[in-house]
Write a sequence for this structure.
């Protein structure tokens, strides 16, 4: 029964629709987390990444689930386009860094980093915690994508449990922001 409920929650059947609580123009919380790309662990700093250009930060519920894997594949396929547009791309979940090492190589094709936030500090700061129908917060990130401008302001926010439009929408937002 527990496995069924966990699967149902991840698929969104018992969870409320995703919502991006941070709005365009809000200041993004700064953070430093452990991340991995291609199985190599490093420290990711939002402040340092913003010095190079906009950052696409996308939150996903759980590595190796159907929707999160599909979304990771799409971001991996578009990683070069984000880079050409001058953006840094990073995914984040509440998974531990060991799980994300495998996810980075297997599902992200080692093309962009994913960050671990097992204590949900960053996920909570971005108000991107998944909430159930009982209004209880779950220990998962919701599926929310942000484009953060180099000045640290939210330039675009998109929340939808369906992973289909996150890549297309954030890439369009980045291109509009950078003119590339």
């Amino acid at each position: 029964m527990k496995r069924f409920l966990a699967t149902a929650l991840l698929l969104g059947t018992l969870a409320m629709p995703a919502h991006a609580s941070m709005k365009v123009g809000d200041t993004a919380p700064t953070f430093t987390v452990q991340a991995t790309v291609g199985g190599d662990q490093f420290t990711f700093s939002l402040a340092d990444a913003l010095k190079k250009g906009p950052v696409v930060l996308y939150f996903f519920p759980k590595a190796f689930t159907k929707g999160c894997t599909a979304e990771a594949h799409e971001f991996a396929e578009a990683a070069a386009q984000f880079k050409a547009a001058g953006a840094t791309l990073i995914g984040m979940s509440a998974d531990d860094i060991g799980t994300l090492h495998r996810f980075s190589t297997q599902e992200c094709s080692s093309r962009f980093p994913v960050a671990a936030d097992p204590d949900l500090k960053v996920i909570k700061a971005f108000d991107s915690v998944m909430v159930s129908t009982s209004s209880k917060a779950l220990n998962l990130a919701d599926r929310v994508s942000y484009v953060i401008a180099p000045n640290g302001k939210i330039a675009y926010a998109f929340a939808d449990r369906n992973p289909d439009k996150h890549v297309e929408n954030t890439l369009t937002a980045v291109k509009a922001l950078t003119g590339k």
Q: What stands out?
A: The two ends are 50 Å apart (CA to CA). Confidence is low (pLDDT under 50) at residues 1-18. The beta strands are 32-37, 40-45, 55-59, 88-93, 114-116, 129-131, 137-141, 144-148, 154-159.
